[in-house]
Amino acid sequence: MSVRTTNQILLNNDYDLHEDIEKNRVNKVPELKKKKSWKHKVKIILIIIFILMFIGSVGLFLFFKTGLFQEYKELWVQTAMTTMNHQYLATWFMSDTEINEIMKSLEVVNNEDSELNAIELPKVEEVKEDEKPKENQINVDKISGSTYVGYVMTISDPSKVKFVDSRKANMGTKLSEICKKHNAIAGINAGGFTDPNGGGMGHQLCEPTIIDKKLLYGNRSQKMSLIALTERGELVLGKYTYQEAMDIGIQSGLQFGPFIIVNGHNQIQKANAGGLHPRMAIGQRKDGTMIFVCVDGRQPGYSIGATQLELQNIFEKYGAYNAANLDGGSSATMYYDGKVINKTSTPIGERYLPNAIIVEK
């Protein structure tokens, strides 16, 4: 084989070798770029997650462990600890001592009872036929605040307002059914009840309750902090034994609270008292006009709820002389003229209740 032929072969092989290498480079570059791009994206995501976790941890520390956001922390704790199922929102981040300090600082202490006979209602025997009040006037106003939407109902004739027992054998009754059964034009939920296992059957009383002068739950000899109505339609707020309640003419009542306004004196002093919740409350003007206040809550975008101070402000606006907080939360329900007019805080709608306050037609 000639030298020229050998050189030609070598040149050809050398050319082919470089061609193969170049082809491999062209084929592998995109694959390497893809691997590098994927790893880069994962790295960025991990860095973002780490940064968010770090910011979140710092934020939680500043919120729960310092005094920088004390007012909001108090509101958070009050709201969480006054629910049945969401107390973990406070207990996960704070000690029992810290929580108890906040709860105690915002506690409402009622040391004043409403004055008996302070409401200016005529005695039945003094009312002449031509002086009897005209047909009961009921007005319903829709109200709103920065965190809530609600309703205020005023009833001109307090003698039409009654407590009723709505317990059955093993469950309570929905407010709409209660009102229809008693041929009532309006109604609201009243007292609390135990709710074991979250079943919401609404028939187990947990606080002293008197309806139609019968003590349905409680101890006759112990003082009860009552929200009550007398036979003549006066709202009474005070501490009485069962017999003392009978002696002053109480027809029905139950223990709940706190009292919001007593004898025209505001009882709520702290802005965050009670936290943000759906609310139900009852009040009365000095002329006897009854006031029901219902606030919706736990529905972001519509209504979160109101504090007890905001509830007090509403009653002040409507001229209440006495007012008290009733059972709220998912029980808060207002009925008028054949239907529930507020938006209850649970998807299932009305809860089963052990008792209610109705307005007779």
Task: Outline the structure in words.
- With 361 residues, the chain is α+β, with helices and mostly antiparallel strands.
- It folds into two domains: 69-105, no CATH class; 124-360, no CATH class.
- It is 31% helix and 23% strand.
- It is built from seven helices and 17 strands.
- A seven-stranded antiparallel sheet has the order 1-2-13-12-14-10-11, with helices on one face. A five-stranded antiparallel sheet has the order 3-17-4-15-16, covered by helices on one side. A five-stranded antiparallel sheet has the order 6-5-9-7-8.
- Strand 7 (224-230) and strand 8 (235-240) form a beta hairpin.
- The longest helix has 63 residues, at 3-65.
- It is elongated and about 90 Å long.
Number of helices: 7
Helix-strand pattern: HHHHEEEHEEEEEHEEEEEHEEEE
Q: Low-confidence parts lasting 5 or more residues at pLDDT below 50?
A: 13-19
Number of strands: 17
**What shape does the CA trace take?**
elongated
Whole-Å distance between the termini? 125 Å
Q: Could you estimate the helical fraction of the residues in percent?
A: 25-40%
- Strand order in the largest sheet: 1-2-13-12-14-10-11
Report strand %.
15-25%
The radius of gyration is 34 Å
The pLDDT mean sits at 88
Structural class determined from secondary elements: alpha+beta
Write down the domain tally: 2
User: Biggest β-sheet: count, sense, barrel?
Assistant: 7 strands, antiparallel
